[in-house]
Known about the structure:
Layout: H1 63-66, H2 81-89, E1 94-103, E2 106-115, H3 123-134, H4 140-154, E3 169-178, E4 181-190, H5 198-209, H6 213-233, E5 259-262, H7 265-288
Antiparallel strand pairs: 1-2, 3-4, 4-5
Amino acid sequence: xxxxxxxxxxxxxxxxxxxxxxxxxxxxxxxxxxxxxxxxxxxxxxxxxxxxxxxxxxxxxxxxxxxxxxxxxxxxxxxxxxxxxxxxxxxxxxxxxxxxxxxxxxxxxxxxxxxxxxxxxxxxxxxxxxxxxxxxxxxxxxxxxxxxxxxxxxxxxxxxxxxxxxxxxxxxxxxxxxxxxxxxxxxxxxxxxxxxxxxxxxxxxxxxxxxxxxxxxxxxxxxxxxxxxxxxxxxxxxxxxxxxxxxxxxxxxxxxxxxxxxxxxxxxxxxxxxxxxxxxxxxxxxxxx
Length: 289
């Protein structure tokens, strides 16, 4: 059972979510450029950041494929076989993780799902491997690890209270970007059904649409993030969705069908910029209320 149940997927935006530490005083200069000792704060107390669009993740540095280099991150190959067997038998509790960090002139954007019951790989070890793959400064390591721990601790998607409910559907909306390909879709999801798997659904959807593996991790991340949000806010929701009379829809079919666009670099950049701006505006409105 691995701590990362996703390939390096697409990622979107966060706000900062780390507490200030007295040993690393916050210092900023003109233009809000972070200085040494400054740790970005990412992710609000709620899980609303999981509702944002999912832009392309920071790519792995191409230089690692062109030149021979010494790996600086740890190689995880000394795990006791007994510990591996124990991990394989333990239950998997996947938590959606979103990274959006600006530090030392570099920006990291990524999404993944982390197994809350992982024992053989720590967030620090994963962070070192990720930083090495992307060839970004080592200052990212403690920041990434803290973000993972904070989001894991703050995530709750317990559906035990819903098992007796035969129909508790919510609407899941996908807005995922990988490279220059954009996927938009929406569908209903029954939270109370234990057999519904975001990962299996993502694999099937990508196979049917002919999408690459990075979409699988991005879609499963987005579904799990939205499910956590719906479960956390279900006590405040309005009337539930109408009872299904027939499995076939008769109206608004375009609204419930996947849409795939292949955009130019400029079009994708503009689309992500507009979505980032809209997400910040919606979050400000939510905070005001």
